[in-house]
Amino acid sequence: MPENRAWESLLRDRRVLVIEDDYFWADELSAGLRRAGALVLGPTGTLASALALLAPEPELDAAVIDMNLRGERAEPLVDRLVTLKVPLLLVTGYECSSLSEAHIGLPCLEKPVALAAVLTALSRLLPQG
């Protein structure tokens, strides 16, 4: 499929942080990113573990963040990544319009979401070439 090749060229060797508390979706998303050539940091599913992954300020090309992590809102994590200027894709089980005012303009997908939609949205966030 030509679209998959486009994902591969755009995601190859990109460092992507995955924060997702649903084990099966985190596994599917991480595996899909790896098949597209991305280097995956995580996945992890709690706010504390996600913030710990950022403590050494790893070099990241992008991040996919679930906005609700076992009942905790991911806003502190999103704010940290925005400060670090990491391109973000937010994923939520709620309507994207329910994001906080500070985050309403960030790219967002509503669950349930297909892997192809995430890969497409993520590849659009990355600089070309």
Care to describe what's here?
It is globular, with a radius of gyration of 13 Å. The model has no long low-confidence stretch (mean pLDDT 92). Helix content is 40%, strand content 22%. The protein has a single domain (2-125), classed as Rossmann fold, CATH 3.40.50.2300. It is an alpha/beta fold. The longest helix is centred in the N-terminal third of the chain and has 13 residues, at 23-35. The protein has five helices and seven strands.
Q: What string, H for helix and E for strand, traces the elements in order?
A: HEHEHEEEHEEH
Ends distance? 21 Å
User: What is the CATH first-level class name?
Assistant: Alpha Beta
Which fold name is given in CATH as the topology? Rossmann fold
Structural class: alpha/beta
- How many DSSP H or I helices? 5
Query: What is the CATH architecture term?
Result: 3-Layer(aba) Sandwich
Calculate Rg over CA atoms: 13 Å
Whole-number mean pLDDT? 92
Ranges with pLDDT <50 over ≥5 residues? none
- Estimate the global geometry from the Cα principal axes: globular
Strand content: 15-25%
How helical, in percent, are the residues? Answer: 25-40%
List the strand order in the largest sheet: 2-1-3-6-7
By CATH, the superfamily comes out as Response regulator
